[in-house]
Specification:
The complex is a heterodimer of chains A (about 290) and B (about 280).
Chain A: H1 2-37, H2 44-50, H3 62-74, H4 84-115, H5 117-130, H6 135-148, H7 154-177, H8 182-190, H9 195-230, H10 239-248, H11 252-283
Helix pairs in contact in A: 1-2, 3-11, 4-5, 4-7, 4-9, 4-10, 6-7, 7-9, 9-11, 10-11
Chain B: E1 5-6, E2 21-34, E3 37-50, E4 54-58, H1 65-72, E5 80-85, H2 90-95, E6 99-102, H3 114-124, H4 129-142, H5 158-170, E7 176-180, H6 188-205, E8 208-213, H7 216-222, E9 225-230, E10 235-241, H8 257-273
Parallel strand pairs in B: 4-8, 4-9, 6-7, 7-8
Antiparallel strand pairs in B: 1-10, 2-3, 2-5, 9-10
Classes of the chains: A mainly alpha (about 290), B alpha/beta (about 280).
Amino acid sequence: MINRLGSALPVAAVLLALVAVWYPVAMWMNHDAAASLADEGASAGDVWRSTLSLDRPLLPAPHQVAGEILDELSGYPVSSPRSLVFHAGVTAGAALCGFAIAVVLGTALAVGIVHARTLDRSLMPWVIASQTVPVLAIAPMVIVVLGHAGLTGLWPKALIAGWLSFFPITTAMVTGLRAPDPMQRDLMRTYAASGVQVFTQLRWPASMAFLFPALKVAGALALVGAIVAELPTGAQAGLGARLLAGSYYGQTLQIWAALFTAGALAMLATGVVALAQAGLARAWGGRL
Amino acid sequence: MTAGVASASLRPSAQPATPADAIRAEGVSLTFAAGGEVTHALSDIHLSVPQGSFTSLIGPSGCGKTTLLRAVADLEQPTAGRLLVAGQTPREARLSRAYGYVFQAPALFPWRSAERNVRLPLELSGMPKAEQRERAARYLGLVGLRDFKRRFPWQLSGGMQQRVSIARALCFEPSLLLMDEPFGALDEITRDTLNLHLHRLWRQTGLTCVFVTHSIPEAVYLSSRVVVMSPRPGRVVEVIDVDLGPGERPLDVREAPAFLAVAHGVRRALRAGHSYD
């Protein structure tokens, strides 16, 4: 209990500081717009007050964003394209599929790289090169190309999410699978352990300490990939589409609501990974 | 009280291997080549380790004592000569799990409890679970850790961890136990206790033990024979029999004249084999 409070307090303090800075900045940024919208003869005080309640503020105040999120979350049925739950679900689905691709592909690549010298030489440079491709910049093109190939809807987004997020998993697993020291490998050799046994009993468990931090990074990257993949082609659903539509029509409240929802999803993903890690750590005597 | 000193380094290799030899080395050489430089880790080693003996390999760093042990365990390949372990090649001996090996560090798997660490070799050989548990309990008891089976390595002291690793090497009941400076990283008090335990264990089980160390008192206390080695190239200088009488060896035996005489012999052999030029 004390522990939980101990970790919550610093977070709350940062949040409070953020909000304290946010309000004056919002008032300052929205002042010109508020002044031009104000009635003839409105006092300076009225103008300043109205900076926090504009329909399309340059920078909405925190309470406006919170109100918008609540409104979009609860004001419409979950299946409605106006519901934030609907859009978050679409993005989360694509990100999750991309994450699954990344975990499977990233791990498979690492296993290959660790076990075959030729793969280590031939594959690793390509894995690194893959990350120099600015997927975020060419995402629209990728989506269009995949669309022509008959791939639409969730899967092109999942592919981009997977492309972005497999790299940390591969590099972490390559390091993790190589983590056992020579003595532990010699030990397995004295038991005449098979390659499969060395993998399942030594390399795989040893890699877990490296896998979980990578999964947290990969989760956030998959979310970014899914959102960016929703931006082009005027995607009709997803947080990316909300961002795009919002900036199209100057709906800053909608943009910020989508942004905060994306942030919450990323935190949820990290939390789930942390929970899984804690569960495994408990089985392993409290250390992982 | 005899401290028999027998020079065995040039024993004729024509002598037939007797089944009583747990290990037999005939003209074993081993060279490492790295960066164009050749290191003669072992040079023309002739040695026999009798069944049921406790043999220590002692010598300064670089004398090849660990390399010799690793060659016996098939962790290194000799470049010349013949090496027999329990009448087989080292590779055959390893594949038939003829020996247990204790490393310089415990090398426990941190994700396994003490009991599960001990069970590792049994799991790998596909032993039924009930028998695994029974064996693990028995051998953890033998090293005095019966009550610690649920602890994880980080919850055990260094000495306890090394005892777990000894239990792990014993639990599949090999007839040969190879130990590479197992107590080197421990404090002297812990080391004394473990020496006492190990000597008792050896007397009880009739195991053949080969023990690498660079401590003269440890070698003499534990052994029935001490093999003195010297570096550059790694070779056997002398094989010294230790006879401190049958039965239990209390730690006090290290102050007895018979003990000191053997220790002196070992020290002299070490000095003779070790030149600094």
